[in-house]
Write a structure and sequence with these properties.
By secondary structure, the protein is of the alpha+beta class. It has 18 helices and 15 strands. Strands 1-14-15-13-12-11 form a 6-stranded mixed sheet, with helices on both faces. The protein has a 4-stranded antiparallel sheet with strand order 3-2-5-4. β14 and β15 form a beta hairpin. The two termini are 33 Å apart.
Length: 502
């Protein structure tokens, strides 16, 4: 009976400790690999880390409280209309840029501005100053505070460790974090200023576009069809808002299908791309005219406009609301992935989006099949099913006398797994789709293949005797996997397979 256990002797990984299977970290100053498991023999003696909790680092939290107090004092000086509109327009400009090339000018600015708009709902401006320089200074204060809070979140989630010692604290970085960052780049999740090579972005766009159809957003068009056509952007925004645990909570709206319809109705009612400031009474009249709304208007406002827990989509100034088409569209796309169409409540996933992922998985298989063929391999152009086994790709090279069995997995790490507390469990040990269980399934396919040559000779049209062929079995992933081998199964990314394995 096979059991799912983290046994480092069964696999190879440059990201996990060979002794204990824990995540490896890289020392920033010299690039050395460090195992942070104190029970492992490879844990460096005498190494101590700062505790990022309030009880463990009280001075750090006193400084954060002082920074927040300074921010709130400056907010109170400002004219409510002036500051709210300044922050809203600054965020809108980032959204406008992101919707065109698909890359945010500055993710830290975007998150900070969202949090600042949220602060206005609990600590509204009450002064009279209309100084643009002061408004910009407040935005920069908010950015600095947000970055510091997100860094503490990184420490708590184990993405980084701060080493205790004399002088400036030294840093350890989760080694697999570079792979996570590359995955995020494939969705355009990087600030534009950090882009050195545009080819690093949207690496799988051609595959995703194979299952995307063009639908215009016009009155009378089924909005679900349009939003389904935007599904890669739905995934992008879900990843963007889950970059930190803090931000994930701020964008965790209690959304239902009629909320998206209501936001879409506001979008369609705005005649151009200008920002509007609308009396709440007008917005209420428009909302209540919509059929089948589940939330009351007050509940709708509390969820998407006036909350001090969720980032406002539209911003409130007293008895008026700021709104514009681009911001509404941006958040409508994001929210589309958050509800079950057959029911009302948000579940964290949409079956329509899941269907698109499945279609893209099949497109990924087709892409790999054609690319492998370009390396001189021949074989079936569809998956091969034999008894209880399905082989995504079987190809043979008569020149190299090599047969490859490929199981293709076109998926990203879950946003919730980008944490030291969950990464190994979700990506390696998950009993349904972790790498170990996927490799075990492929190992079973390999055994059946080797034990039944008469079944596969015909479909491969082999020219030589069976024993003359080398058989290689792979699990192929979208991105660099956490482990590179499990027993007799190689686990590599699609790019590595095509570059060096064939």
């Amino acid at each position: 009976m096979w059991s799912l256990t983290n046994n480092p002797s069964d696999y190879d990984s440059e990201y996990l400790c060979k002794d204990c299977g824990s995540l490896l970290y890289v020392k920033v100053e010299d690039g050395l690999d460090i195992c942070v498991n104190r029970n492992c023999r490879k844990f460096p003696q005498g190494l101590e880390f700062y505790d990022p909790t309030e009880s463990g680092s009280p001075q750090l939290y006193r400084e954060l409280d002082a920074a927040r107090t300074g921010l709130l004092l400056n907010i109170k000086r400002c004219d409510p209309h002036e500051l709210a509109l300044y922050a809203y327009e600054k965020r809108r400009a980032l959204i406008a840029f992101a919707l065109k090339p698909g890359v945010m000018l500055s993710l830290p600015d975007f998150f900070a501005l969202g949090e600042l708009l949220m602060v206005f709902n609990s600590e509204p401006p009450s002064g009279h100053e209309k100084d643009g320089a002061l408004s910009e200074s407040i935005c920069q204060q908010a950015k600095k505070l947000t970055e510091e809070l997100n860094f503490i979140d990184d420490l708590k989630e184990g993405r980084y460790f701060w080493i205790k010692g004399s002088g400036k604290p030294k840093m350890l970085v989760m080694k697999y974090l570079n792979v996570i960052r590359d995955m995020q780049k494939s969705y355009g999740l990087t600030s534009s200023a950090s882009i050195k090579d545009i080819s690093d972005l949207f690496k799988f766009q051609d595959i995703q576009e194979l299952v995307t159809k063009d639908v215009e957003l016009l009155p009378g068009v089924d909005h679900a069809d349009f939003l389904d056509s935007m599904w890669p952007y739905v995934l992008t925004l879900r990843y963007a808002f889950a970059l930190n645990y803090r931000t994930a909570k701020h964008y965790s709206y209690e959304c239902d299908v009629t909320d998206v319809a209501a936001l879409l109705s506001f979008f369609l009612s705005i005649p151009n791309n200008n920002t509007l400031i609308v009396p709440i009474s007008n917005a209420k009249r428009h909302y209540t005219a919509q059929p089948k709304a589940i939330k009351s208007f007050e509940d709708f406002l509390n969820e998407y406009v006036s909350s001090d827990e969720n980032v406002p989509i539209m911003a409130r100034i007293g008895d008026r609301i700021i709104m514009d088409r681009l911001t509404l569209l941006f958040f409508i796309i994001y929210l589309h992935g958050h509800y079950e169409v057959s029911g009302a409540k948000r579940t964290g996933g949409s079956p329509r989006i899941h269907k698109k992922k499945e279609e893209t998985g099949r497109a990924f298989e087709h892409h790999l099949r054609s690319k492998i063929a370009e390396h001189g391999y021949e074989g079936p152009n569809e998956p091969v099913e034999v008894k209880i086994f399905e082989y995504d790709i079987i190809k043979v090279s008569e020149t190299k006398k090599r047969i490859v069995l490929v199981d293709a997995k076109f998926r990203d790490p879950s946003p919730s797994s980008i944490s030291a507390h969950t990464l190994v469990q979700q990506e390696l040990l998950d009993p349904s789709q972790g790498l170990l269980v996927e490799a075990k399934r492929q190992s079973d396919r390999l055994k059946f293949f080797n034990d039944n040559p008469e079944v596969f000779r015909e479909c491969l049209n082999l020219k030589a005797d069976w024993q003359e062929y080398e058989v290689r079995a792979y699990v192929i992933t979208k991105h660099v996997p956490l482990i590179s081998r499990y027993k007799d199964i190689k686990i590599v990314s699609a790019s590595d397979l095509l570059r060096s394995e064939l």
